[in-house]
Design brief:
Long-chain-fatty-acid--CoA ligase 2 (Long-chain acyl-CoA synthetase 2) (Fatty acid activator 2), 7-stranded mixed β-sheet, GMP Synthetase, Chain A, domain 3, AMP-binding_CS, TIM Barrel, long-chain fatty acid-CoA ligase activity
Length: about 550
């Protein structure tokens, strides 16, 4: 995340390549950084670090790092030293204009260089004001006594704007230790009233609670299930969760709430679709408001939001948020028509919480914002009750359950150079956190491997060998490491194929472009089985 003032400052949360690009693109001079990230700045590969004047480390840098920075002409300070300088050298506050840039947040850049999304002060303050208006519809509000547990990075727009909101209210923000597996300890320590995250976080909470239930004796488990179904039936009839079954809350669900710190009032999921099973479970058992939203960095957070206590919004991303308008635009190449039945098309957003420009990229800005509408690239379906459902992506860019974007074609180009690979189709499910792939084996390479391992079988039978699958996975991992792919871009499971993707099965076009929907349909059973095995193994 990059924050602009009279001089340039960067809060570092990106990978080495992105950091080098952003330092140069935004003409950064001053950097605020974690101690473990200092080495990325001082790495010789980070050439743009030469322009830096100051590094402020939130803890302390090693003497070696200080010496290296000094040789580069960079002054270094600890956070305490930096604060002390401010006290010793006070200056008048220079109030910004509403149209001034508040923040430039860089997108992940998985399909190219990161894009600098410019958000003005008016954009951010408008969104913050909108949160209060939204909460009034829930007959709730945040006060100075509320506490937010932050475990998303500040480079994630959802976390950023929530923190801005909490600071405005004079409320508290606590930061987790950095280990998602220890999140429960952080919840118990901080006792937050507000929790926001990507689906993977809530999936882990769901898994933890389900595991605890499995340890109960059969009688208590049956009682829990009965209370769950009883409360759910009343919620489906329109009763608010806190009135649906106070008895069930007292006997069972207050214990679930206690495991989340005991004070939770609002849970927000964003970044990717939340599995309906998990959403329902949270709505019934957490004794708190649970909502799901849809938005991008370009919309300064949620552009749509669902409502708590409205069970018809399960699995959907809700209706337009405060200060936003939503429309669907025809995508004839993909057969999506807003005037069709059901109405489908590219989601376009207009309003005061939409970004002003892509920094230093007027061409891309003009491409994304047309006639005042931001074209998201996501495909939505508008339901009869006015709710929005995300159904597709205009480009082959998907978002995994932890909220990370993945450019599928780019990964296929990278993994395609692996010697054992003749062709590859990379697949990711937005409800999953792992990528898998269907790999068409390179015949000569596969046969040579088989002979060295003593497998004297025809080429067509090699795809069933588990040992070969492990070898292909290791080869793909080596390719990923050589190309410096990020962890979530690594292939975690493979389906081996000896027959090329062909037009006979309608898996490719006449120009040999992959028909992803057809591939998904063709390999659906094997994909489901592979994901089941990965979940069982805990890979």
């Amino acid at each position: 995340m990059l924050q602009k003032d009279q001089s340039s400052m960067l809060f570092l949360h990106a990978g080495p390549g992105a950091v080098d690009y952003i330092l140069d693109h935004a003409e950064i001079e001053h950097v605020f950084v974690q101690d473990k990230k200092v080495k990325e700045l001082l790495n010789p590969d980070c050439r743009s670090a030469q322009r830096l004047k100051t590094i402020v480390c939130f803890t302390a840098m090693t003497e070696e790092e200080k010496d290296k920075a000094g040789q580069m002409g960079i002054k270094t300070y600890s956070w305490e030293e930096f604060l002390r300088m401010g006290k010793e050298n006070p200056s008048d506050v220079c109030a910004p204009q509403s149209s001034s840039i508040c923040t430039i947040m860089y997108t992940s850049g998985t399909s190219g260089d990161p894009k600098g999304v410019a958000l003005t002060h008016e954009t951010v303050t408008t969104f913050v004001q909108g949160v209060d208006l939204l909460l009034e519809q829930f007959e709730d509000k945040m006060t100075v006594d509320d506490v937010y547990l932050s475990f998303l990075p500040l480079a994630h727009i959802l976390d950023r704007v929530i923190e801005e909101y909490f600071f405005r209210k004079g409320a508290s923000v606590g930061y987790y230790h950095g280990n998602l597996d220890a999140l429960r300890d952080d919840l118990m320590e901080l006792k937050p009233t507000f929790l926001a995250g990507v689906p993977r976080v809530f999936e882990k909470i769901h898994e933890s609670i389900k595991k605890a239930l499995e340890e109960l004796n059969p009688f208590r488990r049956r009682v829990f299930d009965a209370l769950y179904n009883y409360k759910l039936s009343w919620m489906n009839k329109g009763y608010r969760q806190k009135y649906a079954s106070p008895l069930a809350d007292l006997l069972a669900f207050r214990k679930v709430k206690a495991k989340l710190g005991g004070r939770l009032r609002l849970i927000v999921s964003g970044g990717a679709p939340l599995c309906t099973e998990v959403e329902e479970f949270l709505r019934v058992t957490c004794c708190a408001f649970v909502v799901q939203g849809y938005g991008l960095t370009e919309t300064c957070g949620p552009a749509t939001i669902s409502y708590p206590d409205e069970m018809c919004m399960m699995g959907l991303v809700g209706c337009p948020a405060v200060f936003n308008e939503i429309r669907l635009e025809e995508v004839p190449d993909m057969g999506y028509n807003p005037l069709g039945n059901p109405p489908c098309g590219e989601i376009c957003v207009r309003g005061k919480t939409v970004f002003s420009e892509y920094y230093k990229n007027p061409e891309l800005t003009k491409e994304a914002i047309k006639d005042g509408w931001f074209h998201t690239g996501d495909i939505g379906e508008m339901l009869p009750n006015g709710l929005l459902k995300i159904i597709d992506r205009k480009k082959n860019l998907i978002k995994l359950s932890q909220g990370e974007y993945v450019a599928l074609e780019n990964l296929e180009n990278v993994y395609g150079i692996t010697p054992i690979v003749e062709d590859i189709w990379v697949y990711g499910d937005s409800f999953k956190s792992k990528l898998i792939a269907v790999v068409v084996l390179h015949e000569e390479s596969a046969i040579n491997w088989a002979y060295t391992k003593g497998h004297m079988v025809p080429f067509g039978e090699l795809s069933s060998l588990d040992q070969l699958k492990e070898y292909v996975l290791s080869d793909l991992k080596s390719t990923a490491q050589r190309n410096k792919l990020r962890g979530f871009e690594f292939i975690k499971g493979v389906i081996l194929e000896t027959r090329p993707f062909d037009m006979e099965r309608e898996l490719v076009t006449a120009t040999l472009k992959k028909k992803r929907n057809k591939l998904l349909s063709y390999y659906r059973e094997e994909i489901d089985e592979l994901y089941r095995k990965l979940t069982t193994k805990g890979v």
